[in-house]
Recover the amino acids of this structure.
């Protein structure tokens, strides 16, 4: 997406509220995908205030690749989500061990 | 408007796909007019049931992208296919509201999916949204129900992943007996 499409925090909040309502009418995997999609939108918004974060950039690419799997490959989606989860947890350990805010 | 064919129909069927990555280039007005013409030519139970709303305002598109959970693409424009529920009710009663409306929207969506590749465009069906949200964004009256949003744009250089192989869906005479192609 172009820079003009970089979401604001308001945009992300709007997406989360609308997805929260819509998730009640969807399947569990799709509700999961909405949260993952929102994470991607949040990372794009965060890039505005925290530019140059290599982890954010890498995770954003992984999220974009993973989220569409829910539509045709639920096992692959689940496995990829396991991988993303593990990478986030390992990154959290590193950031928290360094004593700084993540 | 001249409506010459630009692509064999069966080739358009083969090339049809859902796009989630668009180039960001604007869609020429003439091209959009032809796409809308194609949607308007789709079968309908009665004139007045189906309404199309073209959205190409950047602010409205941005709002759609964040208010509609299924809008996971960066298309610069969209077409909302809506049904007039009053006309549906007058035409076919409850079945008109529950079923005919959806079929009419589906025929228009199918025409759009076939016309798009012929015009060098890509589209993506968006069905995950709250009707109330879309009504609020597009100022739709209560008797207009948004049935489906069609994101439209010029596909990105690297297109979205193609659909997987179509499963066996054709049965012969009775359900469960596979139809065998004999030609």
């Amino acid at each position: 997406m172009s820079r003009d499409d970089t979401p604001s925090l308001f945009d992300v909040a709007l997406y989360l509220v609308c997805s929260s309502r819509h998730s009640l009418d969807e399947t569990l995997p799709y509700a999961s995908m909405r949260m993952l999609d929102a994470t991607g939108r949040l990372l794009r918004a965060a890039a505005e205030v925290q530019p140059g974060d290599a982890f954010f950039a890498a995770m954003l690419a992984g999220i974009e690749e993973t989220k569409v799997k829910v539509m045709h490959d639920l096992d692959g989606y689940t496995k990829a989500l396991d991988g993303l989860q593990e990478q986030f947890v390992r990154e959290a350990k590193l950031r928290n061990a360094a004593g700084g805010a993540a | 408007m001249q409506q010459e064919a630009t692509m064999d129909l069966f080739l358009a069927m083969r090339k049809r796909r859902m796009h989630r990555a668009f180039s960001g280039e604007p869609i020429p007005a003439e091209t959009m007019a032809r796409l809308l013409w194609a949607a308007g030519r789709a079968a309908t139970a009665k004139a007045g049931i189906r309404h199309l709303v073209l959205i190409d305002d950047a602010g409205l598109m941005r709002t759609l992208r964040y208010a509609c959970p299924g809008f996971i693409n960066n298309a610069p424009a969209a077409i909302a296919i809506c049904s007039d529920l009053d006309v549906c009710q007058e035409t076919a009663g409850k079945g008109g509201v529950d079923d005919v409306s959806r079929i009419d929207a589906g025929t228009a969506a199918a025409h759009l999916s076939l016309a798009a590749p012929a015009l060098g465009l890509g589209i993506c069906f968006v069905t995950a949204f709250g009707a109330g949200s879309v009504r609020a964004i597009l100022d739709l009256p209560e008797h207009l129900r948004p049935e489906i949003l069609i994101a439209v744009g010029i596909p990105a250089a690297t297109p979205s992943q193609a659909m997987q192989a179509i499963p066996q869906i054709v049965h012969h005479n009775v359900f469960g007996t596979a139809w065998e192609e004999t030609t």
In short: The mean pLDDT of chain A is 90. The two ends of chain A are 25 Å apart (CA to CA). The interface with chain B takes residues 1-2, 4-5, 7, 11-12, 14-15, 18-19, 21-23, 26, 30, 34, 37, 41, 67-68, 72 of chain A (CB under 8 Å). The CA atoms of residues 62 and 84 of chain A lie 7 Å apart.
